[in-house]
## 1
Amino acid sequence: MNQFIKIRRDLHKIPELGFQEFKTQRYLLSYLQTLPGERVEIKPWKTGIFVRVKGSDPSKTIGYRADIDGLPITEETNLPFSSEHEGNMHACGHDFHMSIGLGLLTYVVENPIEDNMVFIFQPAEEGPGGAEPMLKSEEMLEWKPDIILALHIAPEYPVGTVATKPGLLFANTSELFIDLKGRGGHAAYPHLTNDMVVASCSLVTQLQSIVARNVDPLDSAVITIGKIAGGTVQNVIAENARIEGTIRTLSPEAMQKVKHRIEAIVKGIETGYECKATIDYGAMYHQVYNDENLAKEFMDFVQKDEEMSLVHCKEAMTGEDFGYMLKEIPGVMFWLGVDSENGLHHSKLLPNEEAIEKAISLLSRYVTYKGKRKN
């Protein structure tokens, strides 16, 4: 078995939520300490890690980011290496991302390229967001890359496929939490209460009008309400209700417009249902915007590669906090085909492990090419 497939399986067993990746960090550090240390510097950061590999004749620094956290999903794959942490799962492929990152790091340690490389093992991508604070850290300021790369597994593409595009790749995203507080009471006396179940249902319905009637039809936005909670028992009118959802837009301007309309509608609910409401936007992620020139160069490289095929994909409503890094550092993110029947964030996600070796091989060739002084 390829050692990085074994690493992926080891990591798959120990998914941990954002900024709780203590076992994961220890595992990564344990592996890193097995590498020759002459050109390798390691700096832990919270539950993440920075690693710098010195080049043979550096003129710039190439960055590579891999996210490390899992999701609060109960695994249903029946794999012999299923999650040992009940209720948590690597259902977004971050176990793949880490093993590929370690594979590339090992390659550049054993086969020095001219330029320096900085590897960023980032916590909390799924929330509350690790990229933005990591970007502002002293470690990043000291080792800040000149360009940066990252990938995300793509269940819908076959193994051996890379999909990306210049410019906008992933959407602007924001969590959405709305709490409503009214006056509860006995189910037989609704006229003495302010029913927050009724208010929350009305609010959800009105929120759906925003995309249909307030967003430019030539732009794109999504408001999804994934959870409603309210009340206690069947014969008590609810005093409280909570709505949880997500907002996704293809432009920052649309995000501002959507939030403005949400706030206006919520004020109307407060007046109409004589209640109080609070809005929390939670974690907000900046769009993933690939540098035009670097993306075209990377796509040309893949297109000429005999082992991989290239798909020029469309932008997606997926959210990724790597967008914060791309806001500050020119770079490229791409989809890596892993051919799974079930998609991201699914309890039965089964990515094909053959993609791990293919990704390490491709990235090794690319950073060797990119790490030469002429580039």
Note: The first helix runs from residue 3 to 12.
## 2
Amino acid sequence: MRKTIKVLAVVFSLLLIMTGCSNRKNDPKKVSEVRIGILQVPNDVAAARQLNYLKVYFDKKHIQTKYIIFDSGVDANKALISGDIDFATMGDTNGVVAMSSKIDAKLIWVNDVLGNNEGLVVRNGSGIKDFQDLAGQKIATPFASTSHYSLMMTLKKYNLLDKVSLLDMDTQDIVAAWNRGDISAAYTWQPTLTPMLKNGHFLITSEDLRNQNRVTANITLVRGGFERSHPELVKGLLQQLNRTHQEMQTDSKKIITAASKQNDLGYNEAKSQIGTSEWLTAKQMVDQKFLTETFQEQLYITGRFMAQQQTIDHAPTKKEISNFVASNYVEELGDK
């Protein structure tokens, strides 16, 4: 694991050096295309895309929208560094990696607070009935992800960090390894969970951790150069995402149907994959001081834990976190 993180740190550093000047070239006064890095999951971006909220907004400004799918935030961070994308959705742990690596980016949105759409699944009949039964087992998870962080916190709580074998796998490889019987446990997210739960069950979910005041979330980052040059477009994109969050609470069937169609899923499957994740509106984030206080404290806790586990070089300070979170966009939307 430490070798993996060191390699990532070197890659990020080299990319930062190589692209230090090029990012400015990607921010002309007139934008012809906005590039959005996405996760292939039924979330707010999928719903806004299917309902043409984003297309209509950017079309009015004569701007095309391009979507690039990433399996994890690691590749999304690399694309932010190289200037290949303007926005990226990822787990908050990869946001901490971006912050720690001093990637020129800002956190502008919380797509969803994770619930049972992410968790630790164990195979039925494996003999794993409680946490102590994990000792000696191989557990797969995508390193540097929210799943990895949640798994590590759980293993530490039950004194299992040195008693299990952790395997760094992307989501597709996790499913393949599960189907082959190579692993009996994995902490991952939807849609990977769906096929695994056919012959497995949860030992713990991110909803359980959320109830223990260990919040994880999917977030949206904007490339720094783009944000500084085009704050009005950042605000406009968030207006469309906030619209889906508002409608999720007033007409969830409409939003789930849109997200399901965008991901070629049945309605019930999309609803199951969204699960108990929370889509906070901008007003709720403001009223709860979520971005200015609650979530920043969680990022601080996450950063300290990741630094202790040597998954990042240093734990971001509270000042670094405050500078990283551009809460002004949500605050402006939430005041209306």
Note: The two ends are 45 Å apart (CA to CA).
## 3
Amino acid sequence: MSTSDLYGELRPRAFAIAYQMLGSVGEAEDVVQEAFLRLHQTQRGGETIASPRAYIATLVTRLAIDQLRSARVRRERYVGEWLPEPLATDPSPGEHAETADSLSLAVLVLLESLTPQQRAAFLLREVFDYPYPEVAEIVGTDVDSTRHLVARARRHLQQRRPRYHASRQQRQQLARRFFAAVEHGDLSALEELLAQDVAMHGDGGGKVPALGRPVNGRRRVARVLAAMAPLLARAGGVRFHLTQVNGQPGALVFDARDLLVGVMGLDIADDRIQTIHSIVNPDKLRHFDRVGDLGDLGALVRPEHGGTGKG
């Protein structure tokens, strides 16, 4: 099989591993390209690769581990709260089943609390269903140590990991009601849709105005969201395009020129919105077409009277 044929067959899995390791589309693309370049060079050198699938999975994981270690140093200097780069593609049924809820922004944020090796072992075993011996070989340890890595990661995430009990259709219906309430500034409707301990997170990366800290609690989050309505009206032409954001309901935010200025993702459980992620850092939206800059719309994600405490 040619390198181009291998690329077409193996790239989706390779990108999925790299993205869930790094939470960055650009960094994941770089890792995948580097892995396939090494595969091509190895083949051209006359070396036989028994399993290109295993070869690419190993290279991508190890490159991602190295990249994640250096990325964490940069993220310590990041302005404001760091959130993953969003994906707004709707996965196929097979892809959705493969990645389950691990693609959600909330889970990707939780994965940041693991060590790079724990994250790799957990994803390969729990999400991509690699057998323990193969995971051990990929991450460079023995099977017993790999089992301990996965167990520790599982315990760490178990209590905090969201559970999506509602059907996809129910979540989409709730999302439609949510964004309609935001557009109309309907405070009571928003409070009805939000969980008591809902949290709203924003990422502007110091490039555009955004929430400096998470906003917590139903009342405070509802007030922040309701305050967006008059700002949307004054801006004119700003609209929400409902879509799937990292496999969960969300919306792309477009300005009057039809440029993308933000992405909002929702995590929904028990018929309530548990978490809202708002990514407006233009650097994290570059993989979308026609990206704009919030500019004067910055107040949409940094209202003057939001508060950050529990409500």
Note: The mean pLDDT is 87.
## 4
Amino acid sequence: MTATPGAAPPTDPTPGAVPPADPTPGAAPPADPTPGAAPPTNPALEFVLPPALAAHEPPEARGLARDGVRLLVSRGGRPPAHHRFTDLPALLQPGDLIVVNNSATLPAAVRLDRLAVHFSTARDDGTWLVELRRRTAKASEPYGGGEPGEWLPLPGRATLRLIERETPRLWRARLDRDVEPYLRAYGVPIRYSYVARDWPIETYQTVFATVPGSAEMPSAGRPFSADLVTALVARGVQIAPITLHTGVASPEKDEPPYAERYAVPPATARLVNLTRRSGGQVVAAGTTVVRALETAAGGDGLVYASAGWTRHVVTPDTGVRAVTGLITGLHEPRSSHLMMLTAIAGAAPLARAYEEALREGYLWHEFGDTHLILSEAG
């Protein structure tokens, strides 16, 4: 059984440091040690993203199936290769493991006349982290207003009270009713200006979505279809879940990730360890999966069943212990995700991959194309 949120991960008979979770059940998650700090990135990745390379709508609206998006493949020191996502089974070997995020996306944006409230992260004491945004003709933009103790009237005669700032852009706040049922009644999916119109919440769900809680879609899992999962299993590739509820990732800010709730089940931990021991690839379907697995990895490199809050940031300095590969989208120049990708791919191969993606017109963001990073051994 998965450890109780907030408790330390259970010990394993193999010696090794077990990563700590929040030690006090019901306490606030650990604070970001450097709120608002811009993450350092590979200088070769300081590119300007052309607006034409933002995916403005789901692939289905572009005449593609979910699994028909492009897949750029980086494998060790080899030149980047071009595929479709449907080629994924042929790119992996029997005995490899894909770890997916089963968090389901909430309709986390509530719109007022001039403002929008983006509900980000549920706290143990019933409060939520929220972002206030000013509505614009296209979508919304950051809003720096608000005062501690201020009350905001929301649709459905609901009231949101601002308590205090948690980060430069996020407030800790309390709604006067249960948040998730309220969002299902009055919320819409979070949408940024590069997406031209609203899409139904089903558009923002992956085939693995079973545990509601993410403010924004764990988008690396979106291209998977039921047929593709069947093809992977028939190939002998295993699939195992973790849960990590993603918070808001306002694209205008260069902030490191803040604390998010995660769970790594015992069965998934065992499969990761067995796959590594047998020489298979452990491929994370998304940066959220990397964050959860690396949080649960001990100093001995084994992954332990655990649950709680994580503020772990993967960088080239921390390295990775649990994963050998990653399926991900294409990320903004100063996104903290690029530090994680550099830790897995290496600085020079990642720079070559992004140069190729820009040259070949790959699409960015949650409805865009994908990138598979594998170790040389794969």
Note: The chain is about 15% helix and 25% strand.
